[in-house]
Each structure stands twice: as structure tokens, then as C-alpha cells.
Amino acid sequence: MMKFLPGLFLSCITLCVYSQAPVKKLEAVKVAIPPKVDGVLDDEIWKNIPIATGFIENNPVAGRHEKPEERTEVKIIYDNTAIYVAARMYETSAKKVANELTARDQIANDDFFGVILDTYLDGLNGTGFYVTAAGVQFDAKYVPTSGGGGNEDATWNGVWESKVKINDDGWTAEFKIPYSALRFGKKDIQTWGLNMIRRRQSVQAQLFWNEIDPKKNGLMNQEGQLTGLKSITPPLRLAFYPYFSTYVNNYPYNTPGIKNTTNSVNGGMDVKYGINQSFTLDVTLVPDFGQVQSDNKILNLTPFEVKYTENRPFFTEGTELFNKGNLFYSRRIGGQPINYSAAYSNLKTGESVSSNPVETRLLNATKLSGRLSNGLGIGVFNAVTSAANAVVEDAAGNHRLVQTSPLTNYNILVLDQNLKNNSDIALINTNVNRFGKDYSADVGGIVFNLNNKPNSYNLTGYGMMSNLLYTNKPTSTGFNYEIGGGKTQGNFTWSFYQDFVDDKYNPNDLGILSFNNYFNHTLNLNYFDYKAGKYFNQWGIFSSTLYSRRYKESAYQNLNINAGAYLRYKNNWQSNININHNLEGNDFYEPRVAGRYFRTAEENNISMNLNTTTSSRLHGGIYYMYRLYNRFSGHGSDAEVYYTYRVSNHFSFGQDVIYSPRHNSTGFSTLDTLNNNPVFARRNIQTLENIFNIKYTFNNVMGLSFRLRHYWSKLNNQQYFDLATNGELTNLTSANFNQDNDQNYNVWNIDMIYLWEFSPGSEISVAWKSSSLTNTTLARYGYFNNFDNTLNQPKNNNFSFKILYYIDYQNLKKKSKNKL
Description:
Elements: H1 6-10, E1 25-27, E2 29-30, E3 56-59, E4 72-78, E5 82-90, E6 112-118, E7 126-132, E8 137-144, E9 150-153, E10 161-167, E11 170-178, E12 189-200, E13 205-208, E14 224-230, E15 238-250, E16 261-274, E17 279-285, H2 313-316, E18 352-355, E19 362-371, E20 376-385, E21 388-393, E22 399-405, E23 408-419, E24 423-433, E25 440-451, E26 457-469, E27 476-487, E28 492-501, E29 518-529, E30 536-550, E31 556-569, E32 574-582, E33 585-587, E34 598-600, E35 603-611, E36 618-629, E37 635-646, E38 651-672, E39 677-699, E40 702-723, E41 729-731, E42 743-759, E43 762-776, H3 783-791, E44 796-804, E45 807-808, H4 809-819
Parallel strand pairs: 1-14, 2-4
Antiparallel strand pairs: 3-13, 4-5, 5-11, 6-7, 6-12, 7-8, 8-9, 10-11, 12-13, 12-14, 15-16, 15-44, 15-45, 16-17, 17-19, 18-21, 19-20, 20-23, 21-22, 23-24, 24-25, 25-26, 26-27, 27-28, 28-29, 29-30, 30-31, 31-32, 32-35, 33-34, 35-36, 36-37, 37-38, 38-39, 39-40, 40-41, 40-42, 42-43, 43-44
């Protein structure tokens, strides 16, 4: 099921740079008595306040002005504690106002209104506050990215108030944004960057107060201004988030001495402390992430690890500074122990591994981040995980411990300086310290993003150095850089990048890099027309070319050419068409043996997708790709169908089905144990993933979600080959390997969560998670027989209850004064 976060609706504006159009200004008026935040807008205080109106469409028809009968009117006032926003969104009929209920931070079939505040007026960083016509809040932070664009961090959550009201001539919204949800300086008179956004779902239109030109790259740099802010003081920002949780887990071991059912009780706390007007300290003590969504595990046939999505709130919220340079993959913290497989090494006769933790335990984590008035952003991150030990047991019941990971400390330091012309430069360092119990790691470098004065051209890049510090051998040092640039303004844009990674560069103790030792060149060409025509509201064509060589051996790796077109039709349906051509190449990673390579065959792909408008009760899309391999007449495809059906504004369900068959594909199978020679196979692979979602939302603060995922992948080897030293496949000459290595891989997950935000920032959640994973060599059954067997497999069931309470120091202080 597709969930539409605001980033999806802003995606069309994150490609070019600074606007030279006239900047709109709105004066904020200071008041002594705040309005009642109820969405009605009948307070006397709202009379005679300057009005912001004249919103301009960005999508689907860029530059089109709103009609008088569909206009937007906004007023902003403030006092010593908060900013207040009153917005009236006119429609010719209340029936045109889309107001589907969803969970917080999710958008479905909804009109919405939002404000984005750039409190330092730097044109780079901002904070967005949005509310749908159903009264559902979502918020986000905006930060610059390499290439001159922008990035939306929708995982950030603030504590603020909003109410809405639907009436005969449209709908209204009222905000209270406390200063504790913002960061700003102590100047007596301040001007903030401001833009306001409205979405009219019935016609798929998105409008901005200060025009966002899609031919110019960026969001924050095309903002207006909020003036008249006087004598406001940043408050003491101190909040506590204590939690209590309890779990009951059941797995049918049915083994003497092992309990089928276990339980646990947990408690901890998060703390947010505003050290000053610029910096915030976030601390999590004994965190509990048991209710996060299950990972989408897959059968991994590549030589590289799978990169999973981070779902833990502490590591997704407010981490924009730490993501500079792509050195931070937060799943490393609390992930699999670095020596997990050591438990199975050197086992004595009669010994077996009775316990081997798959994750290290996170003890605590701390984030300090903020930005000074001179534009210097500073970020400090620290986390500590405990040691992990496997338990080895012999036939007599004796136990011994094997340490798979020592106590580990993770650190990140970032200094990010804003420059003129919406440019910035950053220094970043990551460090992993294992205190002499194993090797430690240090990675650091510089990241820059530079634009010319008219913001029509961009130069971007980074340079990094990694050091692995061993206790028993010399330090291993590696290098990596990227340099690129291009034209970033207008209908036609282009960019060129050069990437270099030597054979020793390794950021993977806290970052993630699939492979090193390459020297790449990439050219991108794009042309987009944003003027509505006879058949299309927008259309574009694009192409990219990637040429890759091996660095150390100075050998050719591959050449990939891609071209495609984007179309947005008059009915606002959208489609893409792509053609991809991979020339023959040399794959140095697939053989899994250093110094060997595999001669890859020519491959041609063609794909298309079609998406309907989300305003329909039933909406969705289709995707299809056909693949043709120039070896063994190999071919394959990827087909996807997804839909969402809105039964009512409270209830909806949807499904996403992906089927990916491969016939006569070729890849690594196993190793010949006699001579350590890679054995390849011609094989048939069938993969089917089915995700089913149900959502029932009781009101704008309470809902129930159900997600079921079944993933099945079956691999049948048809013929084995030796890999010759020239990279070609030859007839198999030995059989020193297990030929019974077909695979039948099944993953089953259910995530069902009831969530109630009983007061701003505080919530109660109840969750049921059911899962199973099987991987066997029995791969002769079809999908339905396999599915029936999967249902009968033992499953792990986990039930949990968690309460999280938000305590604001300012509110405690007020209550204390009232008592006195």
C-alpha cells in the first residue's frame, strides 16, 4: 500500500537552484491574548490582521494562479510563547474537500495546508508543519543535499497544536507552534523565511504562497519572508519521554528445558534538552525498539549485504546533519556482532552452539545538534553497545562463552558551514572504538556543495579517508572521492560525476559500502517541459551513462546506458518508460574469490509503469520490466501490481504484489572445496512478494494498522560450470561440492499495531507481531503448495504493550506557579 508523505508531493521541486523572482513578504502581528485554537477562526484577535493570499500552482500546471472562488487566505500572529496561524481554504463545495483519516505523519486522500519556517533565513534549512482536512498532523525538517537540491526528513516530530473545520465554502485550519518546537536566535527584530503550501486533492493540485519554479532547483531558496517578529525569546527547551513496556513471546520449541513462552518488562526514557537557542541534546536511556516494523528480508544471491530500512525512531529523527557524506548507516548500531560466525569456529567434538545473539544490545545513545547564527551547524553523536557472547555447550552440559562482539562505542562529529549562494561545506568524522578487544575504525573527510551567484550551475563533491586500526597488524588506510557538477536551472539540465574508491577504503563499521576498488564516470542529461499542452500537463526525457573501471587492476568493468521518458497526462495519471543497455563486462565481485572475475553477458531491459490519481476511491498502478540476457537464451521479468481501496474515510485496504521470474540466469553457486574454485550455475529463479495492508483509523489520534508480508523465492540449478581464469564459464571438471544446493526461501511477517496519541507527544501502543523464516533445499513445489506449507511452519508470536508519556518542563513550571 502506498503511503504519501509530503516528500512525494515536493519531489518535483528538488532539482535546480535560487529564484530571482520577487520575494513575497507577510507581516506577523504581536498580540497579548492568544486565540483559542479550535479551527473556527472567529476570535476577535484575527480581525484586521494582514492576509497572505495569491497562491501559485506548482503541480500539475506550474505557474497557474488560484481562482478567486478557490483562493487561500492566511494570517499569522505571535506572542511570547508561540506562533499562531489561521488559514482559510476556499472551495465551491464542501464535497471537494478530501479528508481521509490516517495515522500521524501519513497522507492519503487528503487536502492539506502547511507552513515552512526558515528561522535563520539561510535559504537552506527549514521546519515544516502541516495538517490535513481530517485534522491529521505531519511535520518535517528540510536540509540541503549535494547537487544543490533539498532533502525532506519526515521522521522528525514536533509537539504543536492544530485544529480544522470543514464548512460549506471549504475548510479552515488553526495552528499553535510553540517556540519550543523551533530553533532561532536572540535578535530583537527578526525576519524568518516563510512559505506556505496547499494541496487540493480533488484536482491533484499543489500550490505555494511564494512561487516554486520547477525549473529552479530547491525549496527553501525559493521562500518568502515573515517580518515583524520583535522581542521573542527562545524558551528553555526541556522535555522528558519516559516509557514502560511489557512483552510476551511464544515460539513452539517443544523442547525439554526451553520455555515456549517468555515475558519481559522494560522501562527507560528519552530526554530532549535545549542547551541554548541553537543546540538540542537528545538522549535515549535503555531504549526499547520492539514495536518497529519487521524487516523486509529477502533471499540474497548477491555478494553484498542487504541494506535494510532504519525504523527505530531515535535513529531516524533529527539525524540530517549526521547523514552528510553517506558515512552513517545506523543499523550498524545494535546490529549483528562483528564476529558472529566465530561461535561456530573451533568447536570441539560433541560441542554445539546453544545460544548466539543476532544483535548487540544498545545501552544508550546521545545526539547533540544545532546551528549557530553565523550558519555553522554542529552535530555530535555517541552510542554504546554492550558485549555479545555466544554460549557453546558440550554433551555433558558444560558451557563456555565465545565473545562475538566487545563493548563498542560509536561516535560522529559534523561541522557544516552555510555559505553564500545557497552553498555549504562540511567536515565529518566517524569513529568506532572497541577498546583494544578488536580492531577500531575511523573515517573522515570533507563534503562541499557550491553554486554560482545566479544559482544556475553547481559544483559538488566529497573526499574521504578510512583507517582500520588493528591490534596485531598495521593500520589499513583507504581513500574515496567524488567530484561533479553541471547545469541546474532551466528545462534542460545536465550533470557529470567522477567517483574514485581505492581497494582499501572501508567505511562499513558505521557506514555501508557494497564494494570498493573502482573508478566511475557518470553523465546525466535531462529535459523537462512544465507547460501544460494538449495531451500532457508535464513531460520529460532523460538519459544516463555510467562507465566503470577497476582501480587497482585498471581493468574495464561495465558500461551502462539508460534512457527514458516521464509523462503526466491531462487526467493526472503518470507513467514512465525506460530502456536500459548493459554491455559485456567483468564482474570482480560475483566469484567471491579475490583475484577472480566473471565475464558478464550483454543485457537489455525495457520497463514501463502507470500510476492512477490518488483522488479515486480505487487507485494504484502497474509496473513491468522485461530482461534479456545474451547467454543461454536467458530472460526474465519483473511485474508489480499495487492498489489501495478506500472504503470510507476511516477504513481502507491495499495490496502490493511483485513477481520476478528468471529463466537461464547465471551466477555464483558455491565453491569447489578442493581447490577453492568458484562454481557457477545456470538456474531458474522465481520470486513472489505479497504485501497486504489494512488500516482503520478511529479519529485523528487513534488508529489500527495490519500488515502481512509473505516473501517466497525458489532457486533451481539446471547446470554447473567451472569459472576459468579468463572469466568464462567452462564444463565442470570436478564435483567437490554439495550439488544439492537448490533453495526454497520463505519469510512470513504480520505486524498489527493499535496506536493512540492520548495527548500531544504521548501515546499508548499495543502490538502483535508474528513471523517465521524457512530456508531449505526442497525447491520442487509451486507457489500454492509452498504457501500451504508455510502456514503450517512454527511461528514466533510476540505481544507487547507500551506507554510513552511526554513531559514538558515549561508546563510543569506553569503548574507549579499556579499551585503557589
